[in-house]
Recover the amino acids of this structure.
């Protein structure tokens, strides 16, 4: 595929910039020297243990390294081996993941650990291809683990690396278009230093995270500046190009703070879908004008409780990746606090912390204190 260079030579094969071995060698040498001199001291970089690298790479998906560090350290302290993770109850895994978001990562990691123990006698895969057979491990994560832990010469392509490549090559094509993405994988593989694939991959990600940032890139501090077409043309701030995103839907919901004898009802979400397996106040999407009636009917039909809906306590707005959600919390009263299933709990607000909940549901529960 031919990717267009921005502003000039639109029909030129973008790969022509780095054809010579000397140019490739210089780029690799400069990047690796910068990384070995400047890399952040992160706990998963102090080990070659594939399990710990796997956990870190899953946590780092769509999450910044500084945020991940304390979660990683707590998680590894609780589950130092794949066997201990596999034996753990899902609710404990989710509790340790609480606040990190994208909870399907935790569920897939837990499921994959169980598969490794059950089907592979606890032996982790050693190749990128085998890693991709596990739940939640895609091409990027598999390549990161295999290159860092085992030295397999396979390139990674995440958002940071794609941005670095887009600027190096001054790409005018949207980097989130499938054809462009496929070509970027090829380019990442071609640039990879085969003798140090793990360090090179981490260097590319580090460069994107700290220097070649989405806004206001620090081109003057970049070890690859002399190789970068965008820097040479003064257009780094304009790149990368992305396709226009569709508007995010605005959804309204109502949550029932059902009180009985000082305790409130919490319910566990289904095992599939958004925030699966986490606990929350009974919540339902509503028409704003009929919120009280729809909330009362939801609790009656789904949970078999008769409630009286009282005053509005607060409305909390929360931005998910694909939706904007406004949740209105209502104080409600129930005559009998009986358990109807294993997916319900009656707890005082002081005990809410014993169950895994999302950031949104922690905010909703905090309205009751």
């Amino acid at each position: 595929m031919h990717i267009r260079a921005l502003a000039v030579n639109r029909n030129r094969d973008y790969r022509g910039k780095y054809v010579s071995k000397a140019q490739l060698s210089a780029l690799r040498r400069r990047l690796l020297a910068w990384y070995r001199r400047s890399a952040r001291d992160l706990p998963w970089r102090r080990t070659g243990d594939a399990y710990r690298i796997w956990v870190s790479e899953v946590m780092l998906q769509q999450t910044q390294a500084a945020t991940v560090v304390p979660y990683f350290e707590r998680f590894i302290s609780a589950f130092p081996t794949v066997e201990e993770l596999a034996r753990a109850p899902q609710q404990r895994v989710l509790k340790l993941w609480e606040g990190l978001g994208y909870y399907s990562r935790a569920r897939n990691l837990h499921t994959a650990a169980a598969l490794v123990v059950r089907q592979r006698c606890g032996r982790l895969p050693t190749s990128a291809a085998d890693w991709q057979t596990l739940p939640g491990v895609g091409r990027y994560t598999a390549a990161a683990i295999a290159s860092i832990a085992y030295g397999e010469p396979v390139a990674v392509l995440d958002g940071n690396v794609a941005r670095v490549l887009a600027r190096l090559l001054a790409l005018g094509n949207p980097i989130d278009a499938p054809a462009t993405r496929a070509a970027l994988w090829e380019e990442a593989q071609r640039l990879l230093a085969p003798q140090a694939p793990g360090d090179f991959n981490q260097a590319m990600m580090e460069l994107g995270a700290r220097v070649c940032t989405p806004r206001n890139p620090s081109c003057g501090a970049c070890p690859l500046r002399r190789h970068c077409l965008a820097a040479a043309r003064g257009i780094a701030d304009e790149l990368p190009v992305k396709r226009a995103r569709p508007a995010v839907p605005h959804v309204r919901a109502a949550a029932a703070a059902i009180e009985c004898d000082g305790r409130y009802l919490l319910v566990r979400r289904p095992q599939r879908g958004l925030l699966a397996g986490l606990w929350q106040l009974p919540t339902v999407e509503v028409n704003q004008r009929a919120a009280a009636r729809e909330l009362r009917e939801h609790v009656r039909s789904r949970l078999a409780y008769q409630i009286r809906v009282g005053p509005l306590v607060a409305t909390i707005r929360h931005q998910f990746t694909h939706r904007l959600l406004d949740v209105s919390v209502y104080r409600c009263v129930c005559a009998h606090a009986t358990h109807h299933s294993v997916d319900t709990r009656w707890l005082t607000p002081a005990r809410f912390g014993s169950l895994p909940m999302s950031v949104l549901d922690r905010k909703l529960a905090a309205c009751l204190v």
Q: What stands out?
A: The longest helix spans residues 21-38. The chain has two domains: 14-238, 250-366. Residues 6-16 have pLDDT under 50 and may be disordered. The beta strands are 250-260, 263-268, 279-280, 283-285, 307-319, 324-334, 344-347.
